[in-house]
Amino acid sequence: MAGVMIEYDVPVPMRDGVILRADVYRPEGEGPWPAIVSRTPYDKTDSYELLYLDPVSAARRGFIAVVQDVRGRFASEGEFVPFLNEAADGADTIDWAAKLPGSSGAVGMWGISYMGNVQWQAAGRQPAALKAIAPALTMREADNGLISRGGAQELGLLRAWAVMMGFEELTRRYADNEEELYKQLADLVAASDGIPGPTYLELPTAADPVIARWDLPDLGSTAAVDVPPHQQNVTVPSLHVAGWYDLFVQPTIDNYTAAARRTPAKLVVGPWNHIAQTGMQGDVNFGLAGHGAVIDFSTSILGLTFDWLHAWLTKGEAPDDDLPVKIYVMGAGEWRSEPEWPLSRAVDTRFCLGADGSLAAGGELPSGTLAFTYDPQNPVPTVGGATVMPYPPAGSFDQRVVEERDDVLVFTTDVLHEDIEVTGRVTASVTAATDGRTTDWVVRLCDVHPDGRSFNVVDGITRVETVPGEAATVEVDLWSTSMLFKKGHRIRVQVTSSCFPRWDRNLNTADGMRTGEMRVASQVVHVGGDAQSFVTLPVIPRGTAGNA
To answer: Which of 460, 459, 427 has its CA nearest to residue 348?
Structure first.
C-alpha cells in the first residue's frame, strides 16, 4: 500500500494578509498529483471530520489532499462569520493548492454540509485551477432548510449548531482569562445538556436568546450562504450526494438540477441522514445495500467522490459510469439508475382527505370539517424526520405516539392490493382556517406496516398569516423521496400545526416571535367534496421501474 506524508498547520496566506492553516496529505513520490481541498469550520484534526473526508485514502488514491480550518476557526487566524469570507478565501486556497510542490495544477473540492456550501462559493469566483467539485448533503437557500422552511424557523438546527460552535468561539475569546473561560464553558455545557428541553424552550425566537447570551456564531447572520448567486458563475462539473432523511435533501437535489442544465453533473441519493449514511434509519432498516460504505455492494460515497474527482482532474472527463442519477428506492431495498430528475414517467396523483379519516386517489369521500386545538405550550413533538439535532435523532420512527394526540389529524388508505412506488417531490394542498392571525400547518406522509406501525417518510411546514376564521388553501412542500409502499401496507397522511423542536412553535399571535406572547388556536380543516384537501404523490407506473 502506498505511503502517505502529512504536513500539519501549513500556512495559507489570504489576499488580506490573514493566515489560514491546512494539513496537507500527499502520496509518496514526486507526482505530479492533482490536489483536492476541503475547508471546514469543525476542526481539521477532528477524528469525526476525518472519518467523512478520509484524506489518507485520498492521498493513497493519488491526490494531494488539503484539509483547512476556515477563517477564525481552530488553527486559522481571523474572525469567523458564517459563510461571509468563504468565496474569497476558497478561491485563494485553490490558487495556493495548485502551486504546491508536486501538484499537477488541477484542483478539486470535496466535503459535506458547510464544507459543501463553501465549494459553491469558491467555484463562483471561477478560479482557473478548479476543475471539479463534490458538494454533499448541503444547502441551497437560507430560507429553504437552513434558517427557515416554509416560513418557520429551523430552531432545532440553528440553536444546536450555535451551541456546538460556541465552545471554540469562547475558547478563543477568553484565551487570556482562564477563570472566565471555565465559567463561560460551564454555562455553555449546561445549555448543551439542555437539548432537548430548556435550551429549546427559551423565547422569544426572533432574536435568539441562547445565541445572544454568549454572542455565538449565528447561521442567520449573513445571506452569503445562498447558492444560486454563486452557482450562476460555476462552470465546473459537480457531483451531488444527498440523503432522503437529510435536512438538506431538497436543496442538494435542486443544486443538481440547476447545475445539470449548464455543466456535467451527477446525483446520488441514498437512505441517509446528515450524520449517519447507513441503511439503518431510526427504527427502519432499509437494507445493507443502502449503506454509504457499500453502495450497491460495489462502491462507497468516498469511492464515488474520489472516482469523480480523479477522472475530471486527470482526464478532463467523467468516469466510466452509468446514468447521471442514482437513487435508492426505500421499501424496495434497491439502487436504481435514472437518466433524469425529476422522473418524467412519474404521474402526479392526488390522494384526497376524507372526513372519516380516509385517504384515496379516487371516488367520493365523506366531506365536512375536522377541528382541533393547537396549544404552543404543548406542541406536537418531533419524532425523527430529516433533522440534524442531537436529540431527537433523524430517520424513520414509529409515529403512533404522535398520531394518538388530539391535535393531529390522521388520514389512511385502505390496505394496498399492489405495490405503489412514490418517487419525486411530494406536495400537499390543505383548505384550513384558524381563529388567529397566524399559525402553522404541518403535513407528514407515512408508511403504515401490516402490524400497525406508522413510519414517517417526508414532511413539510407552512407558516401562514390569515384572516381569523376564514378558510384558505395552504400549500405545503414535503420535499422529495423514493419509497415503495408495499402490498399489504397503507399510506397515511398527518395534518397538524407543530413539530417541535425541529421547527419553532408558532405562538399564534401577531408579535409572538418578538415578545413571546402566546395563545391557544382553534384549527379547522375542510376535507372531502369540493374542499380539495389532498396530497400529490408522484407515482411510478408499474412496469416502468427503470434501470437497476
So the answer is: 427
